[in-house]
Amino acid sequence: MAIEIESFLASVAEAVRSRQVPVVDLIAVQSNDPFKVLVATILSARTRDEMTARAAARLFARAQDADALATLSEEEIASLIRPVGFFRTKAGHLFRLPTELARFGGQVPESIEELLTLPGVGRKTANLVMAMGFGKAAICVDTHVHRIMNIWGYVATRTPLQTEMALREKLPVTFWREVNGLLVAFGQSICRPIGPHCDCCPLGGLCPKLGVRPRRPPGAKMDPQRPLKFVSWNVNGIRAIEKKGFVDILLSFDADLIAVQETKAQPEQLSEQLKNIPGYTSYWHSAERKGYSGVAWYSRLPPLAVHYGLGEREFDCEGRLLTLEFAPCFLLCCYFPNSGEGLKRLDFKLRFNDRLLTYLQQLEKKKPVILCGDYNVAHREIDLKNPAANVKNAGFTPEERAWMDRFLDNGYVDCFRMFNNEPEQYTWWSYRFNARAKNIGWRIDYFCVSAAAREKVRNAAILAEVTGSDHCPVTLEYLC
Ligand code: SF4
Asked: Average pLDDT over the chain, rounded to whole?
């Protein structure tokens, strides 16, 4: 059934009326200056509005225009904008901006094509500058606009660019400028990427909710017909990610069990907040070496038993495996060893993997097994951006991939590939070279289930939009 876009957007506008105006819109209204809108938009990528606002205020106090910006060194710009994500990359873009603007007489150009030639300016930024900086009809399609328009079935597209082109065809021009601000506010508050709040959404009865798994409303009872939701995430340091809003992100998953790898913390180093997240009991298996490895589970369900490690000291002192036993299945959170630079730890990893396989075979004799975590291997060429360049590198060696073959030959199923055989589906990106923004990544985080559990798998996905670590979370929906 086709939706009425005018009434949908009117309901959204009403629902987000009391919300804070997005920072770029605010700067546009307050300054009426395309240069400031451009700079604020560059700063805002992958950064919370509060941080963007603070960084923009500090930078504009020193540089009101391109001429003033040209007097600052790259290091000065970096230190002024420091709280924003990827501040070094953005400082580089802003440092080069005055030189690039000189091609346009020192002014911000007024066409998408010209804007796209500026450093750090992609299609989303260019459209936002056109719309908010120059007041022109342009549609800025970010992740919220792309996602929500597809949930509504107003478009059926796979990429933000396809969404922009589809909206140009059918969205009335009167909505072009405002649709981004509306859907960003709506996507951050109600129609969230994970567990949208359909229970309190004004569109609840009208929205087709395509591809959506609404949150369980607070206080709602467990539904036996509803699959359990599991999440696995290598957080690359739980104390570091705590400062980036980990607890709120975890709660937004609305998951029954959450596996965490690379906690890099001893139990006594954990805050009360991390140990006692409302609604969850946490279990920890840390490495003996401080700041290294470590795994954990957050569970809404009480397990029958908790098993720490593999029963062999050389592996267990690294805190790599934590098993929760439930009546219907075993759930294992594993942080596989990395083969390391020069493959120095490849032998260790292969021994760990073989010992793990033996352990799994023992568990399988009792009940189905679900093994999630950071496997530290991309299985097939489709699972990383540059397979040819990485055949001798940790995580893609023939030995590591052969173990994965053997593991799957034992009946295990890579759940994500049950639902998605597309390339460029990654879960880890290097912090270097702006790899995440360019989607130069690897798929090394998995949910795999034993043969007996295969029929119970309902969905598996990658939550690439969730930031905070160099990995993103992966999910499994499973009907016990
Ligand atoms: S009903 Fe749910 S999916 Fe639809 S717009 Fe509202 S929050 Fe989003």
From this structure: 93
Q: DSSP for 381-444?
A: GGGBS-TGGGTTSTTS-HHHHHHHHHHHHTT-EETHHHH---S---SEE-SGGGTTTTT-EE--
Residues contacting 463, CB < 8 A, separation 6+: 193, 194, 231, 472, 473, 474, 475
pTM above 0.85, yes or no: no
In tens, the pLDDT along 288-329 reads: 999 999 999 999 998 999 999 999 999 999 999 999 999 899
405 tagged catalytic: no
Topology of domain 5-189 in CATH is Endonuclease III; domain 1 (1.10.340)
| 228-478 CATH | 3.60.10.10
Query: Ligand 1: residues within 6 Å at CB?
Result: 151, 190-191, 196-198, 201, 203-204, 207, 209, 212, 214
Distance 26 CA to ligand 1 centre (A): 26
Domain boundaries, the chain: 5-189, 228-478
Tell me which residue has its CA closest to atom 3 in ligand 1. Answer: 209
- Which atom from ligand 1 is nearest to the alpha carbon of 206? 1
